[in-house]
Design brief:
The chain is of the alpha/beta class. Helix content is about 40%, strand content about 10%.
Amino acid sequence: MFGRERNQAGVLIELKPAYAIDPTNEDDLVAARNALWPIVEEANKVAPAFSRIFKEMILIASPNKPLPRAGKGMVMRKAALEVYAQEIDDIYAEVDDAAESDSAVLPMSWDVDGVIEWLKEQIEDIQSSDSEDTPFSVSEDFFAQGMDSLSATILRRRIVGAMFVASSSGSHFDNDSEAKTLKAAQLITQTTIYAHPSIEKLAAFVAGVVQDPERFVAVASRADAVDAMVGKYTVGLGETATHKAGSSLGSAPVDKGNMVVLLTGSTGNLGAQILESLLRDGRVQKVYALDRPASVSLSQRQAERFEDKLLDVTLLSSSKLVPLECDAAQRNLGAAQEVYDELRSSVTTIIHNAWKLDFNQSLSSFEPNVRATRNLVALARSSAHTASLRFVFTSSISSAASWDQSLGAYPEEIVLDSRYAVGNGYGESKYVAERILAQSGLNATSLRIGQITGGAPNGAWATSDW
């Protein structure tokens, strides 16, 4: 495998002598890649997203250039990559230049409907190893359906490639439109996919820029999008509070020997540490650990995370731990009515720690997280303990990504100018949640967290931070 310091991985394969081909023969190369593809697809299903192999990145070794081997016949990886350094550079160049390839498949038309159908075909082809025959929704978020950053890169190349081919061949365009199409292709950047994360949204953008790249405006400014989401999820709440984060809004003292905590995100690196602390805390009577359903049970996920961090797994057998597999973005947090009523009557503290971690995706991709926050606010506002209930939200320093440092340190309060939150969808969505809490009337605290180091007892950092 190769790909160090590249944006995607590839694999160098030496075929057995009986199956050897001339890799410069395009027909033989295509046939070999197709024959190998089912095996690669199986590997892709269990491989991390960053190491998935696309068909274009399969490099076949030449019989005239055998891979160097050690005495016992083992391939010498470093030496092999050096021998094939030029071919590796060439394959990356070919993929990068694929946007100008005559083999690009074009939409039947460049209106919204035509582009929707074309995008659907392209995405299902790109996602073939993950799709399991499940149709790709045109309205749902790409990334919620399994698309990753490498798939987004390939999709962008196919869009740009189709535009280049269409303009150079005159397909679908008159002579006056060729320059417009070339301009439109230049507007399809990698962030385009993340900013329009569904087939319908992306099709509207693509059709718009093809029609008039000079005047077409796809979305309002990022700050306007943030404000729009704040407005959407603060309907029904009071006026914006200008209180400092953590200040009290009509709270009464909490009985600290009888705390009932609702914790979201207990299976993450930080969440596991919080859960462990709560289970050890004698002041805590009960912990409701609310996490989304998954293919593996919540209890097993919690145990695996505790084992990974060398935390005391026996704590998970505590009678005060109540696992809840629910989707907080759904009505009543996705819980049965009797469970929801129990939460309303008993919870004295909410620690909202669950959030998708992805710095590439746009604000709209985090809307389920924002909706979950609003649903938790609704629970707290209807609680029997509203006056004394504490709401703690694990926000992020990314919520202040565009702060003007000439103004000094970012204030420890809610900053109402959303321009300072613009940076990436993750931080923008955290800022939206802070604004929701500021208007909630609750005793709310937002903790703007930065880099999280390894914690006790073993000091191990999250592998995703390496």
